[in-house]
Amino acid sequence: MSLCINPFCPNPENPDNDNHRFCQSCGSQLLLEDRYRVMRLLSDKTSFGKIYEVYTRSTPKILKVLKEQLNNHAKAVELFQKEANVLSQLNHSGIPQVDGYFQYQTSNGFKLHCLVMEKIDGVNLEEWLQQQSHQPISEKQAIAWLKQLAEILNIVHSQGWFHRDIKPANIMLRNNGQLVLIDFGTARDATHTYLAKLGEGNQITAVFSAGYTATEQACGQAVPQSDFFSLGRTFVYLLTAQYPLRFYNARDDVLNWRPAANVSPKFAAFLDNLMARKAADRPQTPEILLQQLRQLEQTTTLKTTQISRKFPRVITVGTLLVMAGVLSYGLYQLPRLTFIHNNQLEHLQIDNTLKSHSHYVKTLSISQNGKTLVSGSSDKTIKIWNLADGSLIRTISGHNSGVIAVAISPDNQTLVSSSNDQTIKIWNLETGTLIHTLKGHEGAVWSIAISPDGQTLVSGSGDKTIKIWNLKTGQLVKKLTSHLSSVMSLAISPDGQTLVSGSNDKTIKIWNLATGELMRTITGHDDAVISLAINPDSQTLVSGSNDKTIKIWNLATGELIKTLTGHNAEVFSVAISPDGKTLASGSGDTTIKLWNLNDGSLIQTLTGHTTTVYSVVFSPDSQTLVSGSSDRSIKIWRIQQ
Length: 641
Known about the structure:
Blueprint: E1 31-32, E2 36-43, E3 49-56, E4 59-66, H1 74-89, E5 98-105, E6 111-118, E7 122-124, H2 125-131, H3 139-158, E8 161-162, E9 171-174, E10 179-181, E11 188-189, H4 194-197, H5 215-218, H6 226-240, E12 248-249, E13 254-255, H7 265-274, H8 286-308, E14 319-321, E15 339-341, E16 348-354, E17 361-366, E18 372-377, E19 381-386, E20 392-397, E21 403-408, E22 414-419, E23 424-428, E24 434-438, E25 445-450, E26 456-461, E27 465-470, E28 476-481, E29 487-492, E30 498-503, E31 508-512, E32 518-522, E33 529-534, E34 540-545, E35 550-554, E36 560-564, E37 571-576, E38 582-587, E39 592-596, E40 602-606, E41 613-618, E42 624-629, E43 634-639
Antiparallel strand pairs: 1-2, 2-3, 3-4, 4-6, 5-6, 7-9, 8-11, 9-10, 12-13, 14-15, 16-43, 17-18, 18-19, 19-20, 21-22, 22-23, 23-24, 25-26, 26-27, 27-28, 29-30, 30-31, 31-32, 33-34, 34-35, 35-36, 37-38, 38-39, 39-40, 41-42, 42-43
Helix pairs in contact: 3-6, 3-8, 6-7
């Protein structure tokens, strides 16, 4: 629909506008600057005005329109114009490209200030962390993102500007993983800082974002190093998932954030240096910042190399029985007992890459007959694929937020999905028809599992509860409460007797599935337990965590058997082969690893994804592995005979 942006138009969404150059309600021009046609309102909640999506030919852009009541506010107009001026001088993929700045005159003679810029395909980091159910990022991810932002600031500062308002809401994450620094309306020319104007008696404009703004900037005395302070505070938020001022001790004037973050002492010291109270004590240039980050990265790489030597690459003789459907969310499906030799894994290669989702691929499942692949994404959709040729069969929409988990019933008839929208939906797999919507959770539904007999559905949520449902009727059977934080992962034992849950509270809980009785609480991980799998003999439990480790437990006693290290980031997905010999894991370090479960040796590392691997699943015939990633792709790996 073609919209009119005249604030006084009686019907800006007149349906007749689509086929005309002038609004059919007020007569204002619809084709702005003879180029831009306004298609939809994205937001009218910003402090400065409205944001629209516009099109120039077939290319989407973002249009910012200053509020009409601010037209006579000189400072507001100056900041609005400054954003266009700054962006026009900067050329980097991490900075939005300006397309045009102009004044638009309505049919009644009113003038509006308009800025058109590149549309960033993604979300800001505040929104992103909400999508992750406020799971803190890893140190490795933080270093990678800091490098990107330091490179962006190097461009900005080298052109004589600094930003003055760095915070999670002003950093966007493109779907390809590139960070973008936005909102340059508050940027200041470094030659017009407090340092330059101190002797001139000029008033300094203070820009303030509570929790992120440096002290000198809050006093109207911003300097380029103020950006580094804000950058440090931003990463305190990302590493702890908590507002920075929650850690502030006013009595001692310290930010006691370290206990809440799982980072090394060296990296913590680096961030504290960014947030030094005196600007002179912080890194003075982005180049210095980049140099320090490279040194930190080398230290991390060295430690990883030393760890990996503990488990040298060994190709064992034996068989790999592949488990169909053990996802990062704990779904177990009865496998077909088809064998492949471990040495065949040396020939596992990417056969196909499926690209249809517009955001992270968070979860996968394969039907028991091996014909159908299902994927769920942060783009709110579920996609049904033909596993044999990779063709897209159907896209299912219905959730109002990202899809976190999918599961297929053992009879291949029913599909279950869960979402950030706090609901669980039950679908007919063949037709895509919605059967039930299950409501009751008060937080994102992070994990689902279906019992081996296909009668019971279990869900775990950000509301700290586990709910047990009748899969056929959609009726709630039981509610389990014991975790102190989000329930991130679930698994049901192959014998159907035991339910296991993992949580952000760092614990694993063992339940009697039939009665709901809590039998045991297991501790040992240093961070959230986000993936679980149970050995086919129902004796061994495997857990993956944000602490980058995989732990192997005796399910009956809760005793720790072994800890596997080797991943450099969160372990989002674990799966055990049906013979109990082989473990597969997918991680935030972009890799998939296959392990010998008996001795902890690494069989093979699969690379191909460019960002986090959220889910891995094997086909019932064991010839195919499918992986889903935040790089928006699904990769199909096949045994090359």
